[in-house]
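Dear Dr. V.,

Thank you for agreeing to look over these. As mentioned in my earlier message, I'm a first-year student in the group and I'm still getting used to reading structure tokens, so any feedback on how I've presented them would be very welcome. I ran two proteins. I've put each sequence directly above its structure. The first is here:
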Amino acid sequence: MEQKKQLESVLPLMRFFAEMLGPDAEIILYDVDDRVVYQVLNPMDDEMVPGSEMRSLERNLLDSKIYEKEDFIVNYRALSRSKHKLKSATFFLKNNPERQLRGMITVNINVERLVELRDALNVMISGYRPYEAPAESPFYNSFEVSVEGLVSTSIREELDSFGVEPTRLSYQEKMEMVRRLDEKGIFLVKGAIAELASALKTTETSIYRYLNKLQEQS
């Protein structure tokens, strides 16, 4: 009974999230004892109603007991039943001082339209078929952008995320690294392609080839 009261007390917070984030945000409150939906606002699936079974992802969070170490997890990726891309976060409701888990709030934001907008912006920035300039082209040399340390730091962070030496990266891993840097706009900075080529122990031509391949995939 005490747990139900605690879950009821969270409902105004759910309405706050729903009002702030809008209709593209699904807000779910879970009863962790019964592993069911206690309340849901802006449901994305017809079967997501109070009393319906907890989704598998949240069940995995319970089974792994990640809540014993974390108060919340944010910015993980998920897909709705209708295959829409979601940015998700889960907050673990615990009582004090025992820190016993009483419930979970999951927020799923449909980012499908944002992904489409990002892709459109990439085309506007880089072009559908980017200009293939040689390494010493005056076209790129005349583009003066200087952000000290930005390129080096971003490249190093991406390399560290793979956890291996640059020479051991596979073709797919190099493509993924170029994709991430391109999304950050790193290649708008003068000298970025040359610096990345040096870091990957490859040629600038190879980096241009990766970028062209990404545009073809888009």
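The second protein is here, in the same arrangement:
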Amino acid sequence: MTLTYHQQKTEAKIEQILQGALSEFLTYGYLGTSMDKIAQTAGVSKQTLYTHFGDKEGLFKALIYEVTTKKFQLVWSKSLEGKPEIVLKELAERIVNEVNDPQYLAFVHVIVTSAKTYPELGELFLENVAKPAMNILIKYFDDCADLNLADSEAIAHIFVNTLIHHILTQETLQGKKVIPIKSERIINNLIKMITNTE
């Protein structure tokens, strides 16, 4: 479908606002960011922000959707088909490579630190990323003839959460200095445990 000039202009304006908002949220956090700052950074009027997003919460929710949807597509758009040793290794490597992005990790940090005061932000993040990802992986586990997992849901959580915890520990909590371990070792041993292979 071809967009009209007006639609293209509107989309470009929204993208401009989201980029400006992302910069502010990453610098000042959710609570420390104002619509005035976002408008100034994005180069638009405050009224334009309210017209497109309603309020700061609406803008941040749109940003969550924008950032997480792009990242989700990069990791999960490839269908999971084939031998588990190969499929899980490729998936694990995509997760590690895509999530291990300083800007993305910083954005997740903003969500986590805001979730106590604004739990709906955390819920939105999980609804857009964790839940659909888990559903895809659970279906693969259930459909895979080479695996006979008693609890595919729990194994899906273990698989994804182990990799996310590894990234956060190594990249955000200075694990590379304190408890360094290569991603490859985590991935290989995680797959061995799930597939029960050597």
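From my reading of the second output: Residues 119-143 form the longest helix (25 residues). The chain has two domains: 1-54, 61-195. Does that match how you would interpret it?

Kind regards,
E.
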